[in-house]
Amino acid sequence: MLNYYDKFQQYWAQFSDSINLRSMQSESLFSILFHFYVGNYYHTHQHIIECLELFNEIKHQLEDPVAVELAIWFHDIIYDPQASDNEEQSAKLMQKHCVGILKKTELEKVARWIIATKKHLPTKEHDLKYLLDIDLAILGSSTQRFAEYEQQIQKEYDWVETQQYQMKRKEVLTHFYHMTPLYQTAYFQEKLELSAKNNLMNSIKNDIGL
Fold first, then answer.
1. Are residues 121 and 147 in the same domain?
2. Each residue of 10-63: pLDDT tens digit?
3. What tens digit of pLDDT does each residue of 166-200 get?
4. Whether residue 123 sits in one domain with residue 70
5. Which element (helix H / strand E) includes 69?
6. 94 and 112 both lie in a single domain
7. Which SUPFAM superfamilies did the record assign (predicted)?
8. Of 64, 95, 148, 206, whose Cβ has the fewest other Cβ atoms within 10 Å?
9. Of 11, 46, 5, which is closest to residue 138 (Cα–Cα)?
10. What is d(CA 108, CA 102) in angstroms, rounded to the nearest whole number?
């Protein structure tokens, strides 16, 4: 994922400047973020950049854009496909390393939002709706990017027997397909809902592309 280094660094510099981080703290956090997003196939610098690009489209609609952006940076920082508590561990790591960046209550909110990306349940929280939609935006991406995403997820689960993977993956995609609506905000419903449902249905029909 080194091809994404410059963009990843650029977005971090912009965020760091916006919250007036001291240079030493900014460099330390960047090092942590960059390191932890290396070694995966989908949960990588690319995914964070794609999330941040969408965030920049809608941040003017948010009540607390700083909290949403911090959640984006850390929401997948811990990712072990064989673990069941990645979001909880990501939230803990964020709280550990971001002391003093925001008030304690704000960090607790960000941690709760990160954990919410685990199940993507409907919420009444305005900003959380946008965060969850951004995290699922990949489902409504171009046909080419969605196919790449499916390959990346398959690689992250290459330790699972093929038939078992196909069955479980089909269950996941079918779950998302039947979510009505899939996206919780009007913005992402208009932008991505139709393409996401088409991608999901095509993948389900084609044995998830394997």
1. no
2. 999 999 999 999 999 999 999 999 999 998 999 999 999 999 999 999 999 999
3. 999 999 999 999 999 999 999 999 999 999 999 99
4. yes
5. helix 65-74
6. yes
7. HD-domain/PDEase-like
8. 206
9. 46
10. 10
